[in-house]
Recover the amino acids of this structure.
């Protein structure tokens, strides 16, 4: 691409620094080329709930509620919201917002978008964002009443991924057959976001042009090119050769090399992803056995002493410093600190192999036992290596561990068929609050209350269930926060889910070129990347 | 001749039918794609509804039956991931792979045969030894590593060529090509070189072995005795005689490279079909995987057919047998 040089010449002065996501006033730089790992699957924002899909969509469309850098909710297209009664939320909309085609944004567009989602959603279903909505009522062009099916305390959090499309432009492109066509080719891809669509092809480049009437103010780049480059080394090579200005997901090995390279600078951000070890609680679990291969008379993972021993066996500092090359933090709960529902009362987890062995002996397994550990190896940075590390640590306390770090395409279907006894994968609290994580994992699997869908270890703690059910219907944020904190404490004490490490993500940019703040959800958003000058 | 073609096409149909069943069952065995692509906050109810919506709750034979019924009507289905017809998705990315593969395979063949014939004709010369050394390298060094080294040298250190992507494209015959623009050519150079390297080595070896064998035969002795100039012997007689294995390999290589140029495409971020199929595998996008592999089977069958027809053209013995 030829225009990239313009950017390079505009880039001067100091190093890449962290800065709040404020809006750039000057805009002499012209084109920003980003090399990203994954891309959108369609330009229809309602098609997929995938992170990279939403990231691309945020350039063209706005969400009703904005999720800030730290994932706490902020006004977006809605300026304020409040619960009127148990099952009604009122949203006040921003006035004076324009779509890319010049038409005005109003309540009709929001209603249209909400109702469109269940029709056009793909398998990575976006219906999760509107699952609590029973009815949308337009009070006036800038006021909406949303009726929910039962009390829905987390509705504003659900709406951080509610993209608003133009009801006029997308009207004829709202069936599963026509949606992709209308949006990918452009006529329906009309949003209120900072950039207008120029062109896109699946797995190729997304080319965008600044929308001058954007309500937050003019974006810093006249043109943005978002190139999909799935291979980590190629992405880095493209940055080093000047083909792209910014890349995401630098691998930990490349990160070490980057520190010796003055032409490129790295930005490290905490990730929402925490690697959790999960221990099956069924009476009869398939992949645990005595060391001689014979069947044990009961599932040792149901014994709290054994679970504590497993927890104590994990050396989290070694995991961070050696396995992850420093790109992580020891985790003591299933969400990063500061999230809605994370508890400050939970202490850091200890590592003590001797005590772990003693606990195993006390539980009646002085010689240990054997299990198969399964993990993903290609989903998140370092997942396979962490798995190997865990295997060694468990072997040290006398539990013979057969490590199986496998592709996510095999892992998740097998995990859902409940074929594993001990397994580890990452979980990201993408909404920034606990009902997302604890509701899916820590509640017992109960379709009636729509919770526990990802609880694949038969975990059931009646107190946790009660707290989570109460939390889901408590509209007062302070009371709700307390409930989730208690639920987190109780879940962590049971050690059926054992958090290991919180991952960190690395971006890289040409030295002295841009300023941007890393986001918890790992989004790379051109509007918030400023040229340094 | 017509009977031969018809027979081959029937074989192709059988191969493709078997292929579709094997791929379908294989992908089904890995598991339900919904488990990989459904978002974590989905409730049990949403999960069930999604599985139902994509027909994944039906028994295997029924899913396969629906697939085949649609296929016979020319409908490969829609991608789970992109929600566009699979054929459209593949067709949109085929030109990128086509130009890359044709350029690299044709270049490798022309160059490889030339060098190989020389190496076979003057096996003791230093140049021939140099050529053989290069071919050993081409064989033994893995292509992803060569790709990374090419990027490192030409894109990162020297900055002469871009590290990836397709560059500027122009529309020709309704399709976008990048080899028609200078910028596009600069983008195609490294990946084409990367792809060509292994094939070049193979062509050199084939041509050299053929040349060494043929040069000792009576045909060449008689040609020399008849006073035919050496140059004419090489370009007319020798080339024809060594061409059968070369054409066979050319056809197979063309097919396999078209279908599986995935390593090079990934390293150079080349938006071709190889990348598409790998991406589809990682998310179990069954319609794309199945359609792609069926089309690949078709491609191979067609290439083999063409190769057989070309044999008949260049080899009078095969023609005489009436194939």
């Amino acid at each position: 691409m030829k225009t990239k040089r313009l950017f390079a010449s505009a880039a001067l002065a100091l190093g890449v620094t962290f800065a709040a996501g404020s809006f750039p006033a000057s805009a002499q730089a012209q084109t920003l080329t980003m090399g990203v790992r994954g891309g959108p699957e369609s330009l229809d924002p309602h098609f997929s709930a995938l992170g990279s899909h939403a990231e691309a969509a945020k350039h063209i469309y706005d969400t009703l509620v904005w999720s800030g850098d730290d994932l706490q909710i902020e006004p977006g297209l809605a300026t304020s919201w409040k619960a009127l009664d148990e099952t009604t939320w009122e949203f006040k909309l921003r006035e004076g917002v324009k779509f890319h085609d010049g038409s005005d944004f109003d309540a009709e567009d929001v209603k249209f978008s909400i109702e469109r989602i269940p029709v056009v959603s793909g398998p990575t279903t976006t219906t999760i964002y509107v699952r609590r909505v029973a009815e949308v009522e337009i009070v006036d062009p800038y006021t909406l009443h949303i009726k929910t099916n039962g009390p829905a305390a987390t509705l504003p959090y659900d709406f951080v991924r509610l993209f608003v499309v133009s009801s006029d432009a997308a009207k004829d492109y709202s069936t599963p057959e026509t949606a992709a066509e209308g949006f990918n080719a452009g006529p329906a891809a009309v949003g209120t976001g900072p950039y207008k669509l120029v062109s896109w092809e699946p797995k190729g480049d997304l080319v965008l042009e600044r929308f001058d009437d954007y309500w937050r103010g003019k974006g810093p780049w006249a043109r943005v090119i978002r190139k999909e480059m799935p291979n980590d080394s190629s992405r880095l090579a493209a940055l080093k050769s000047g083909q792209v200005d910014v890349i995401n997901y630098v691998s930990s090995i490349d990160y070490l090399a980057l520190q010796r390279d003055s032409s490129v600078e790295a930005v490290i951000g905490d990730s929402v992803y925490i690697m959790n070890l999960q221990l099956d609680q069924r009476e009869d679990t398939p992949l645990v056995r005595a060391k001689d291969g014979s069947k044990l008379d009961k599932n040792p993972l149901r014994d709290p002493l054994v679970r504590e021993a497993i927890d104590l066996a994990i050396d989290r500092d070694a995991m961070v410093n050696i396995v992850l090359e420093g790109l992580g933090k020891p985790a003591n709960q299933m969400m990063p600190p500061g999230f809605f529902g994370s508890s400050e009362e939970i202490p850091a987890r200890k590592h003590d192999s001797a005590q772990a062995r003693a606990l195993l002996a006390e539980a009646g397994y002085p010689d240990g036992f054997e299990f198969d550990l399964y993990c993903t190896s290609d989903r998140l940075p370092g997942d396979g290596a962490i798995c190997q590390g865990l295997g060694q640590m468990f072997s040290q306390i006398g539990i013979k561990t057969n490590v199986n770090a496998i592709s996510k395409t095999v892992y998740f279907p097998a995990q859902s068929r409940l074929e594993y006894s001990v397994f580890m994968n990452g979980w990201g609290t993408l909404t920034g609050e606990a009902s997302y994580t604890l509701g899916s994992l820590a509640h017992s699997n109960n379709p009636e209350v729509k919770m526990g869908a990802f609880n694949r270890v038969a975990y059931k703690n009646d107190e946790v269930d009660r707290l989570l059910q109460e939390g889901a219907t408590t509209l007062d944020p302070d009371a709700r926060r307390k409930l989730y904190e208690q639920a987190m404490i109780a879940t962590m004490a049971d050690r059926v889910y054992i958090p290991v490490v919180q991952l960190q993500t690395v971006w890289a940019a040409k030295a002295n070129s841009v300023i941007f703040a890393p986001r918890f959800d790992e989004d790379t958003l051109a509007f918030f990347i400023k040229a340094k000058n | 001749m017509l009977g031969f073609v018809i027979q081959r096409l029937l074989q192709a149909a059988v191969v493709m039918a078997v292929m579709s069943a094997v791929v379908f069952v294989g992908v089904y065995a890995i598991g339900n794609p919904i488990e990989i692509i459904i978002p974590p906050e989905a409730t049990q109810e949403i999960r069930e509804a999604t599985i139902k919506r994509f027909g994944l709750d039906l028994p295997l034979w029924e899913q396969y039956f629906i697939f085949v019924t649609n296929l016979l009507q020319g409908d490969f289905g829609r991608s789970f991931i992109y929600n566009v017809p699979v054929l459209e998705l593949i067709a949109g990315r085929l030109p990128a792979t086509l130009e890359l593969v044709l350029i690299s395979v044709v270049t490798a063949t022309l160059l490889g045969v030339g060098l190989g014939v020389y190496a076979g004709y003057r096996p003791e010369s230093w140049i021939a030894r140099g050529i053989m050394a290069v071919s050993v390298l081409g064989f033994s060094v893995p292509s992803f590593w060569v790709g990374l080294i090419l990027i490192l040298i030409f894109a990162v250190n020297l900055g002469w060529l871009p590290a990836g992507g397709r560059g500027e494209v122009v529309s020709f015959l309704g399709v976008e090509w990048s080899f028609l623009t200078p910028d596009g050519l600069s983008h195609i150079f490294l990946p084409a070189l990367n792809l060509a390297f292994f094939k070049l080595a193979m062509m050199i070896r084939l041509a050299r072995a053929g040349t060494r064998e043929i040069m000792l035969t009576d045909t060449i002795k008689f040609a020399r005795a008849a006073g035919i100039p050496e140059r004419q012997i090489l370009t007319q007689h020798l080339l024809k005689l060594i061409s059968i294995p070369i054409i066979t390999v050319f056809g197979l290589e063309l097919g396999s490279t078209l279908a599986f140029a995935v390593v090079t495409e990934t390293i150079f971020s080349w938006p071709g079909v190889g990348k598409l199929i790998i991406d589809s595998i990682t998310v179990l996008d069954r319609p794309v995987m199945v359609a792609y592999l069926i089309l690949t089977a078709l491609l191979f069958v067609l290439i083999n057919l063409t190769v057989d027809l070309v044999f008949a053209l260049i080899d009078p013995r095969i023609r005489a047998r009436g194939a």
In short: The first strand of chain A starts at residue 31 and ends at 36.
